[in-house]
Amino acid sequence: MKRKGIALVLSLRVPVMMKTVVNLNEQLIVSEVEAVLDSYPHYPYQQAFAIPDLRQELVAYVLNHLPNAGMYVAMEREWSGRRSCTARRLEIEKLLHQGIQDILRLRSEWIRQHIPSVMVAGQEPSHWFG
């Protein structure tokens, strides 16, 4: 005669905190991009890096040139990049400035084609005379 086992399933309700793995350097870079770009003229700098692909290229540039860029941590809530190490922020700001210049130099032709230049009043051709 075979015995059939009875399985007991206990359901325990244990509160689980959700944690997210975050690259702190990437978060800090993203939070610093706006502050650094604010120090540049609107055209072409701010206009160029308002394009998501160029902004992502800038973040990637800094990550690729930043020593020890793989700093990860498990977070229980949203992280604010402004409370980070001052030396690291200064290093990131320096790389952002370098990246802005390098990317604009390397992509200058593409940027000229995709971002209209600013016309100075008086230098724009007049349409009054047909």
Annotation keywords:
130 residues; 6% strand; mainly alpha; single chain
Provide a short characterization of the protein structure.
With 130 residues, this protein is mainly alpha-helical.
What would you call the shape?
elongated
Described by its quaternary structure, the protein is single chain
Number of helices: 5
pLDDT averaged residue by residue: 76
Q: Structural class, judged by helices and strands?
A: mainly alpha
Number of extended strands: 2
Strand order of the largest sheet: 1-2
Strand-and-helix sequence, N→C?
A: EHHHEHH
- Measured on Cα atoms, how large is the radius of gyration? 25 Å
Strand content: 5-15%
User: Major sheet, described briefly?
Assistant: 2 strands, antiparallel
Give the proportion of residues in helices: 40-55%
Poorly predicted runs of 5 or more residues: 5-12
Straight-line distance between termini:
105 Å
Pfam families: ComFB
InterPro entries: ComFB
